[in-house]
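Can't paste images in this forum, so I'm doing it all in text. The chain is below; anyone willing to post the predicted structure tokens underneath?
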Amino acid sequence: MKGISHFMTGVALATFFPEVVQQAEIGSLLPMLGGIGGILPDTLDFKFARYFEKYDLEIDPGLEPDPGAIADALVWAMHIAYEEARPQDVMAHTIRLGADLWREYAIRFDPETGEIVVRIGPLVNTGLVPYAGTAPVDGEEARRKVDVPLVHTYSAEYKVNIFSGPSFRFAREEEHLCVYFLDWHRRWSHSLLLGLAVGAVLGLILGLLGGWATAKWAALVSALGFIGHIVEDQCGYMGSNLLWPLTQKRIPGLGAIHSGDAIPNFLTVWTSLAIILLNLDRFSAQPRLPQARYLFWSLCVPWCVLGGYYVWGSLRVYWQNWSKALLQQTERVAEAEEVDLV
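Text version of the structure:
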């Protein structure tokens, strides 16, 4: 989810408590603490943790990228991780050609064929809009055999385009080589236990400074916003380390959405706004909203229409990918049979 989605979720969760709403009416910022708790996990990662990450290999493609050289570097790191059982952290840097000009390239991990595919793409601007006719001619692609059983834990293909590039961790687990995307992200910062600790510490500080009546609600709403962020992230693919420091690995997500998908983010913000308005009304001295009708039009209708459209689009993409994979498998079997006949 995007930051605004997590923030609004935290605010909405805070408004479920009449005491918080009543204090907000006289100028308290308690609901905002819920929103701050909602964006805190990613803030810890992107404004703090990422800058302490050290890489075993940094790939700088240069202004004239060679897909073969990029693929060879990745294969080299993967073999070290597998043969020496020594995890390798790799950063793939972007290719900046100007203030608003970047060369895009893609890295694909294919477990079925045991290959890495690197493909040079078009020129794009910072808004990720490609410039027509700038994609390299056919042949700007390199394939390299890895010869180890691959498991990718997030996505098969990664596009490297603007600002900072993606990082990967290659780690051997039993007889497989696992490819972890942004291994520093959603580790210790996305722990349910850390969320409880953040709420407790904040409540303790505010209690010592200004009184316990407000401090307990500050602790509650900030912890709820933090935990709400983690729950939303678990709907995606990457997952989170839910019980750090008791555990050290991310638990995979449900794989229902991608964090950047427009419709889930819109529905999250819309739902949060609808809930905030409803809670402000029902905890007021004179509620005016007819709750059943309000919930139907503000939540049921948008979720059925946009949610249904999103699910249909996801199923269509899944069907297309499955059909493509089946066709490729059929072609490989046919090629093998031809070789046997020869």
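The chain has two domains: 3-49+187-289, 54-181. Helices lie at 3-14, 18-25, 30-46, 67-83, 192-210, 212-233, 262-282, 291-341.
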